[in-house]
């Protein structure tokens, strides 16, 4: 959230002797100003006052540790759309925001408010709209969960892409069919039971009746999504973990490649191909989902040349040169009875060379790309002929990411100069994921990971970050159960949260 600032207004006046003096409210003016000069001065004062009030919507919030009350909890968020709403890809939809709040106390609370960011993401994973927002409504009934419509008030727009109609229309949310909506970096507050404790709430005075939540997904009616575990290496198997949002339970699942209509929700042991699913809820509403499992190409066996030792020449020991190496591959050589060694780079030719080999005992050379290892090249199958064309091996990604369109910088209408830029890949992940972040101003930065319930599960970075430098940290997904997580990057009073999925 932005901090309030108040400009110091000072007037420059001209003394009778022609000298310039500075006047403020604790100094007197020297001489009298002509009317024209006063008009200019007053216009300047009005301009500064307008500039000072331009931040009137900025929000001052208490520190998180002052929010000690745990009485109320935000449990779900959705848009008020028809239960069986269907839409065409790219169709713009505008609807009110509904929040469900659980009140665990024996008293009805008059008002409930939130401050945070709304983040709308395209089906390709690009953020197309992000804004700092707030809302307030009530009453929150005692000992139950109350769902209420909340008008969304925009405080500051950070991203507004020309590639989407997503945004805030009036006090409602507009999104395009296929986009996802999240509320992130939430500060929540509530009042006591007094009938006079009505909206709006003063953000700086909400403690201790307040709380925080890293993020919550906004449901847009019955929809189905999946976490795709791609085939890691050629010959392996993939999986699809399905999640259903909105709708009325129970649900039935119909996979097009399986007989019958009462199929399992999730799929495992899948080969390469496209898998289509239809989900039906108890109200007979349907949602469809499609995923493509991709099998990586075989990592090519290394092509090499052997330079034998010479009895009378300059080569004292044989060595091997890797020909036409695969971009991004790691090469390794081992001889019987020895340990694996890595090649060195020839300073003159740039070639990869395995030096100081032992003659007469053979060898085994392999190439590894993204954890997948090739068949070994040995004395029996060696070749020094490069293929006519090589296929680059790309680390497997989700079906959505495989067709991802990158949004150019020109398509973004407004990005705050002090915004945090961050990405996570691969996403979804079943193993390690790399999280990158860059900040506009040097200073302390914090990167934390939360589960879907808002509990912190990992701190990935807690230190100094330089402006404009891309930092990388590793999230060990193998240590986490499958599910939706949110990571939060905090720096210079700004926070950026994004979703990352772990699927095993």
Mean pLDDT: 79
The quaternary structure here is single chain
How many whole angstroms does the radius of gyration measure? 31 Å
Tally the helices: what do you get? 2
What is the overall silhouette?
A: elongated
| Class derived from helix and strand content | mainly beta
- What helical percentage do the residues reach? under 10%
Please state how the strands of the largest beta sheet are arranged side by side: 8-5-3-13-12-6-7-9
Largest sheet: 8 strands, mixed
- Count of spatially separate domains: 4
Distance between the termini: 36 Å
Which blocks of ≥5 consecutive residues have pLDDT under 50?
Answer: 1-33, 45-56, 389-417
Percent of residues in beta strands: 35-45%
- The count of strands amounts to 33
Protein name: T9SS type A sorting domain-containing protein
Domain Secretion system C-terminal sorting: 425-501
InterPro entries: Secre_tail (IPR026444), SprB_repeat (IPR025667)
Briefly say what this structure is.
Residues 425-501 form the Secretion system C-terminal sorting domain. It comes from Hymenobacter qilianensis. The protein is mainly beta and 504 residues long.
What can you see in these coordinates?
The strands form nine sheets. The chain has an eight-stranded mixed beta sheet with strand order 8-5-3-13-12-6-7-9, with no helix packed on it. The chain has 504 residues and is mainly beta. It is built from two helices and 33 strands. The protein starts with 10 loop residues before the first strand and ends with a strand. It is 5% helix and 42% strand. The chain folds into four domains: 65-217; 223-293, Immunoglobulin-like, CATH 2.60.40; 304-380, Immunoglobulin-like (Sandwich); 420-502, Macroglobulin (MG2) domain (Immunoglobulin-like).
């Amino acid at each position: 959230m932005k901090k309030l600032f108040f400009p110091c207004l000072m007037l420059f006046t001209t003394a009778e002797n022609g000298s310039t003096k500075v006047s403020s409210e604790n100094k007197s003016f020297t001489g009298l100003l002509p009317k024209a000069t006063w008009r200019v001065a007053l216009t300047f004062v009005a301009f500064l006052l307008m500039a000072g009030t331009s931040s009137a919507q900025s929000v001052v919030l208490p520190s998180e540790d002052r929010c000690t009350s745990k009485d109320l909890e935000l449990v779900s968020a959705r848009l008020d759309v028809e239960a069986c709403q269907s839409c065409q890809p790219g169709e713009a939809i505008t609807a009110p925001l509904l929040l469900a709040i659980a009140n665990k106390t024996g008293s009805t609370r008059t008002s409930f408010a939130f401050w945070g960011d709304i983040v709308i993401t395209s089906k390709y994973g690009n953020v197309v709209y992000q804004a700092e927002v707030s809302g307030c409504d009530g009453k929150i009934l005692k000992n139950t969960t109350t769902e209420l419509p909340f008008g969304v008030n925009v405080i500051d727009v950070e991203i507004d892409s020309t590639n989407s109609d997503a945004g805030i229309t009036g006090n409602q949310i507009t999104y395009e069919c296929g986009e996802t909506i999240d509320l992130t970096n939430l500060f929540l507050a509530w009042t006591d039971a007094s009938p006079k404790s009505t909206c709006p709430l003063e953000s700086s005075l909400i403690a201790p009746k307040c709380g925080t939540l890293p993020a919550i997904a906004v449901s847009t009616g019955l929809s189905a999504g999946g976490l795709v575990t791609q085939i890691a290496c050629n010959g392996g198997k993939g999986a699809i973990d399905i999640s259903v949002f909105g709708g009325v339970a129970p649900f039935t699942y119909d996979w097009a490649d399986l007989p019958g209509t009462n199929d399992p929700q999730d799929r495992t042991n899948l080969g390469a191909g496209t898998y289509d699913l239809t989900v039906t809820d108890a109200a007979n509403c349907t949602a469809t989902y499609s995923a493509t499992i991709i099998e990586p190409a075989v990592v090519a066996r290394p092509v090499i040349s052997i330079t034998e030792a010479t009895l009378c020449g300059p080569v004292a020991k044989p060595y091997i040169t890797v020909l036409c190496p695969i971009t991004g591959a790691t090469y390794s050589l081992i001889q019987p009875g020895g340990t694996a060694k890595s090649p060195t780079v020839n300073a003159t030719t740039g070639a990869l060379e395995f030096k100081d080999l032992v003659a007469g005992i053979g060898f085994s050379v392999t190439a590894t790309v993204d954890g997948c290892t090739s068949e070994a090249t040995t004395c029996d199958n060696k070749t020094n002929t490069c293929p006519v064309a090589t296929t680059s091996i790309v680390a497997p990604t989700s079906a959505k990411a495989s067709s991802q369109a990158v949004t150019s910088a020109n398509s973004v209408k407004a990005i705050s100069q002090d915004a945090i830029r961050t990405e996570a890949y691969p996403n979804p992940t079943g193993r390690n994921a790399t999280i990158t972040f860059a900040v506009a101003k040097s200073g302390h930065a914090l990167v934390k990971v939360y589960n879907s319930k808002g509990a912190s599960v990992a701190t990935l970075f807690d230190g100094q970050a330089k402006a404009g430098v891309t930092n990388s940290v590793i999230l060990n997904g193998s240590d986490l159960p499958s599910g939706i997580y949110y990571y939060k990057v905090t720096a210079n009073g700004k926070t950026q949260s994004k979703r990352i999925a772990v699927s095993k």
